[in-house]
Specification:
Chain A: InterPro entries: ABC3_permease_C, MacB_PCD, Macrolide_Exporter_MacB. The structure holds two protein chains of two kinds. Chain A has two domains: 181 residues, no CATH class; 200 residues, no CATH class. Chain A is 56% helix and 17% strand. By secondary structure, chain A is α+β, with helices and mostly antiparallel strands. Chain B has one domain: P-loop containing nucleotide triphosphate hydrolases (Rossmann fold, 3-Layer(aba) Sandwich), CATH 3.40.50. In chain B, strand 7, helix 6 and strand 8 form a beta-alpha-beta unit. The relative contact order of chain B is 0.17. The C terminus of chain B is likely disordered. The chains are: A alpha+beta, B alpha/beta. Chains A and B meet through helix 1, helix 2, helix 11 and helix 14 of A and strand 5, helix 2 and helix 3 of B. The structure holds adenosine-5'-triphosphate and magnesium ion.
Chain lengths: 445, 255
């Protein structure tokens, strides 16, 4: 054996040992518990403590149920308000005397500020206003209606035959106003559905006599109910010929030989031409009333249904958001409840954690087990909350006070948020569990 | 004989605020495969500290420790967890069984952390381990339905289930009465006879006498390392032996 040989031998042994060591360490790193098994441990813990599990999940349950129910109610009312506005016609422009903008001080509405039948006729001229389809001049007031045994206060609208088309009203019994009745200012009346049942509980209103502000009127029709929850519902009103309202009931003024009206409702040819029609309305009225063309001296206001819709939608969306935020806060409180219980649970089970570590559980295994626990708690709470929230929403629907709108996206959002809350509030307890020193944990009393 | 444990100048110092507590002040020894060793010494001498180091539950402040050829003091927490799982079976004074689980579930726990073993096989192996400690008829009992001795047997079965190279026990009979202690000690002797390396901590001479080698610790230092047969100068009389030795040993000596 040479010196060279004996010098080489130890290094050969070392590389051999290093390779063996690497193999041994690779072997140690292989395997380990699967996440399914860890999840199983977590569920087992929850299953063996059913009362605590339910109480802990309760916070999230209430939160999710609140989110679902409140958003369903919020969305439902938003939809019903929106639909009752669009039912009135999305392509309508309502004109009233008086300025719409509150710029500066304005005097009282004078004679020259009134809208008149001349204005209505001018707006109906297809040459001057090609984007306007229909014009409904109206005169509104209120009156007491009396039959032999019943009476009611009602909003009275003086209208022309075109009213029915502009406002989408349908006659249930009898007929609507005719041109002739309007021309000769006849004492005829069409009752809204609610008024009809108040005055004639047994039905058969058509052909009967009604006293309206002391004058005799013949009922010629009853309107179809618009559903009752509508916005500006016609159910509580009655309709008489415009001329009758102006001359016989409310004593409208005649200005320059033309009767005044309280409202002119203009229908654009379509929803897309509403803006163009509004322009035409403004131009015609400014010309005829000799007002500045830039609109600075307008004596009328034009309200677009679209604008109302936007405002209302914005308001109800804000309301829905607000309800949702309140509900989300309760969900967050539920998450804090989970964290609280999980922290207590980690303390209670310190020795178990120590034991698991002594038996070979890695930090990640313990972390995952506790995360699964809080996730399962929020998941169970979320699922139960989904069911409870939907049940609440549906029973609110049954009462008929509000129509609710349940939707999948809200349900998934609430459930997802619940899981996220569980995960977020589970991290701190799980980390404190994973970091426990096994020796200290095993000795913990 | 193959070296299983190689401990060199092992020290462990605890830091308590400004005070350093030298629980272990540098001990060196080897333990070979198949040995049956007792670590003895007065309370506070560092026995548990040493045991935790051997068991890969704790890291030494100084010195080196090789288990089965692996340098334990260099391993990270993840590898230490794997070492505890594969190489070591622990038996604790307080049993440390999971109250919610059956005997079978408790024994199967280390197999779950090992991974890659089907649920059926885990149950079979757990049942076999319980059979081995004489509890084949108590698989579905929960800890509170078992006596102290039986609970410690479940804990021993759990320590055995992964076929560890090393069985460690820190005062395994500390919470048991004399007769039950003898039973448990008999079980350790049987396991050692079948080839298992066993190291236990005790302060009871009767327990120590069942082993074959004594490591005596005092104030964090190794005072004596002797075969058990040489530890007590005056040999006890046969009747004394009979009284002191565990049940199973008695049968073998009596006739
Ligand atoms: N985590 C710790 N922090 C600080 N000091 C500790 C810690 N663990 C143990 N010690 C100290 O180290 C010394 C040795 O403790 P150890 O538990 O090893 O003793 P022991 O021999 O097992 O005693 P016993 O027979 O009572 O179980 C003691 O002085 C003890 O107070
Ligand atoms: Mg001790």
């Amino acid at each position: 054996m040479t010196a060279h040989d004996s010098a080489g031998e130890p290094s050969a042994v070392r590389t051999h040992e290093a390779a063996a060591l690497d193999a041994a360490i690779d072997d140690l790193l292989a395997g380990g518990i699967s996440w399914r098994e860890t999840a199983h441990f977590a569920f087992e813990t929850l299953r063996t403590n059913p009362v605590r599990t339910l109480l802990t999940a309760l916070g999230v349950l209430i939160g999710v149920a609140a989110v679902i129910a409140l958003l369903a109610i919020g969305r439902g009312s938003q939809e019903s308000i929106t639909s009752s506005i669009t039912a009135n016609g999305a392509n309508l422009i309502t004109l009233r005397p008086g300025a719409s903008t509150s710029g500066g001080v304005r005097g009282a509405v004078g004679e020259s500020d009134s809208l008149t039948m001349n204005d209505a006729e001018a707006l109906a001229d297809p040459l001057r206003a090609p984007n306007i389809a229909l014009v409904s001049p109206e005169y509104a007031g209120s009156a007491q209606l009396v039959t032999g045994s019943n009476n009611a206060n009602a909003r009275v609208t003086g209208a022309t035959p075109v009213y029915a088309e502009v406002h989408n009203t349908t006659v249930e019994e009898g007929g609507f106003l005719s041109e002739a009745q309007n021309r000769s200012a006849e004492n005829v009346v069409i009752l809204g559905a609610t008024i009809a049942t108040t005055l004639f509980p047994d039905g058969g209103a058509v052909g009967e006599q009604v006293r309206l502000n002391g004058q005799n009127f013949t009922v010629i029709g009853v309107l179809k109910s618009s559903g009752g929850t509508g916005f500006g519902s016609v159910d509580d009103g009655v309709i008489v010929p415009l001329t009758t309202a102006q001359r016989k009931l409310f004593g409208a003024r005649a200005i320059g030989g033309s009767w005044s009206v309280s409202t002119i409702v203009v229908q654009a040819t379509s929803a897309e031409t509403v803006d163009a029609a509004a322009e035409e309305v403004a131009t015609i009225l400014r010309e005829d009333h000799s007002l500045p063309a830039d609109g600075s001296g307008d004596t009328f206001s034009a309200i677009n249904q679209q604008t109302i819709l936007e405002t209302v939608t914005q308001t109800t969306q804000l309301l829905t958001l607000f309800l949702g935020a309140i509900a989300a806060i309760s969900l967050l409180v539920g998450g804090i409840g989970i964290m609280n219980i999980m922290l207590v649970s980690v303390r209670e089970r310190t020795r178990e954690i120590g034991l698991r570590k002594a038996l070979g559980a890695k930090e990640g295994d313990i972390l995952l087990q506790f995360l699964f626990e809080s996730l399962a708690l929020s998941g169970v709470g979320g699922l139960a909350g989904l069911i409870l929230g939907s049940a609440i929403a549906l029973s609110v629907n049954l009462t008929g006070l509000v129509t609710v709108s349940l939707s999948w996206d809200v349900a998934l959002l609430a459930f997802g948020f619940a899981l996220a809350v569980g995960l977020f509030f589970g991290i701190a307890p799980a980390r404190s569990a994973a970091r426990l020193d096994p020796i200290v944990a095993l000795r913990y009393e | 004989m193959q070296t299983m444990i190689k401990v060199r100048d092992l020290a462990r110092t605890y830091q308590m605020g400004d005070i350093e507590i030298h629980a272990l002040r540098g001990v060196s020894f080897d333990i070979h495969r198949g040995e049956f060793v007792a670590i003895i010494g007065p309370s506070g001498s560092g026995k548990s500290t040493l045991m935790n180091l051997i068991g890969c539950l704790d890291a030494p402040s100084e010195g080196s420790y090789e288990l089965d050829g692996l340098p334990v003091e260099l391993l990270d927490t993840e590898l230490l967890a794997a070492m505890r799982n594969r190489k070591i079976g622990f038996v604790f004074q307080q049993f440390h069984l999971l109250a919610r689980g059956t005997a079978l579930a408790n024994v199967a726990l280390p197999l779950a952390y090992r991974g890659g073993i089907s649920s059926n096989e885990r149950m079979e192996r757990a049942a076999a381990a319980l059979e081995r400690v004489g509890l084949g008829n108590r698989l579905d009992h929960r800890p509170h339905q078992l006596s102290g001795g039986q609970q410690q047997r479940v804990a021993i079965a759990r320590a055995l289930v992964n076929d560890p190279a090393l069985l460690l026990a820190d005062e395994p009979t500390g919470a048991l009465d004399t007769a039950t202690s003898a039973e448990i000690l008999g079980l350790f002797s049987d396991l050692n006879r079948s080839g298992m390396t066993v190291v236990l901590v005790t302060h009871e001479p009767d327990v120590a006498r069942a082993t074959r080698r004594l490591l005596e610790i005092r104030d964090g230092r190794l005072m004596r390392d002797v075969p058990t047969s040489e530890a007590w100068a005056s040999q006890p009389t046969p009747t004394q032996r009979r009284r002191r030795l565990p049940v199973r040993q008695q049968w073998r000596i009596a006739p």
